[in-house]
Amino acid sequence: MGEKILPFNKEILRAIEIIALVLDSPGVYSEYDIAGKFGNISIQTIRRDMERIRNMGISIHSSKKTLKILNNIPDKVFNGLLSIYLSLNKFDTLRNLKLIRKRFGNKTLSLFVKILQAINKKELIKISYINSASDEEKIKILTPVLLTRNGRSLYLLGYESDNSEELRVYLFEKIKYIDFIKIKSSIKKIPDTTEFFKYSWGIYTGGEVENVTLRFHKNMTNVIKNKFFIESQQIIEYDDGCQLEMKVKISEELISWVMGWGDLVEILEPDSLKESVIIKANQIIKLYK
User: Fold this and answer.
1) Which CATH number characterizes residue 72's domain?
2) pLDDT tens by residue, 76-110
3) Strands (E), the chain
4) Which residues are bridge partners to 140 per DSSP?
5) Which of 90, 120, 222, 251 has the fewest CB atoms found within 10 Å of its own CB?
6) Short-list 243, 196, 200, CA closest to 221
7) In a domain, 234, yes or no
8) pLDDT above 50 (res 2)
């Protein structure tokens, strides 16, 4: 069974919507029902859509004149479908795209194509990157792994050397130039990208996984219990509030998120997170004294 997602166009959009309909209501819709939902397009068009869906590795078939999907869609394929569909939202724009286009001009689109080709071929790239802390420009040789978004910003993830075990994150707008050196990386196997973020709060993947327990005020119970923050989370309700338990890497992003709740949350564990919040809070107090 393949895991190939075809390039985006209006047919792919319709195919994803058909998948959604059939997953939501298996054994309910016939080919004629589906055709009617898309403005009475032809049955031949719907059958071409079904063949397109099967080429994605999704086993959609008609049984007793109604449509069903017979296999469990792999996470990688499902994520690809969702990413393509979400990309259709014209208001979901990249915040830093203007700066990126100003820097790279007419080469911008070609740049992204070449980055994805380098990722697929496991070829090294050379980048000039502006360090956030020192504003110093540094040359780095990377094995690129992933282009991804967090909010409306774009990031490139990669390994800085062939023997590195730590995945690095680069805000795309801080990359001054990229050189495609067409040399194969010696990294034999790169983990599934979903594993990179399994215990991460946001975009940054470093740090040790810790057990974090947060106790929220009762006024926040309905807000917290209906949210999905991280795969490892467990939410326990009490009369006087709720408790969020999760395995997560402590990062600046997590610390800032916790502080944003103010006195509506209490950190029960770990002590390292408590200490980080105290240090940040004292720095803020000192600033305004």
Assistant:
1) 1.10.10
2) 788 778 777 766 555 556 677 777 888 888 888 88
3) 60-63, 66-69, 123-130, 137-150, 153-159, 168-171, 175-184, 209-217, 234-238, 241-249, 265-269
4) 127
5) 90
6) 243
7) yes
8) no
141 in a structural domain: yes
Distance CA 16, CA 87 (A): 13
Structural domain boundaries enclosing 243: 209-288
Q: Give 113's contacts (C-beta < 8 A, 6+ positions apart).
A: none
Residue 266 lies in a domain: yes
Please state, in angstroms and rounded to a whole number, the distance separating the CA atoms of residues 138 and 150: 24
Residues 231-289 have pLDDT tens digits of: 899 999 999 999 999 999 998 889 999 999 999 999 999 999 999 999 999 999 999 98
Do 135 and 179 fall within a single domain?
Answer: yes
* Pair 259, 278 in one domain: yes
- Residues whose CB is less than 8 angstroms from the CB of residue 267 and which lie 6 or more positions away in sequence, other chains included: 212, 213, 214, 258, 273, 274, 277
Residue at a domain's end among 86, 117, 150: 86
Query: How many domains does the chain contain in total?
Result: 3
Token pair for 88: 């259709």
| Cis peptide bond prior to 270, omega within 30° of 0 | yes
Helix (H, G, I), strand (E, B) or coil at 278: helix
Write the DSSP symbol of residue 192: P
Phi, psi of 13 (to 5 degrees): -55, -50
Distance set, CA 261 to CA 50, 220, 256, 283 (Å):
47, 10, 9, 17
Q: Is residue 235 part of a domain?
A: yes
- Helices vs strands, H then E, count in the chain: 10, 11
pLDDT band of 1, cuts 50, 70, 90: very low
Q: How confident is the model at residue 128 (pLDDT cuts 50, 70, 90)?
A: very high
Residue 114 sits in a domain whose CATH number is 2.30.30.100
Q: Residue length, the chain? A: 289
Question: Is residue 7 predicted with pLDDT exceeding 60?
Answer: no
Helix 10-24, helix 75-86: angle, nearest 10: 120
Co-location of 79 and 103 in the same domain = no
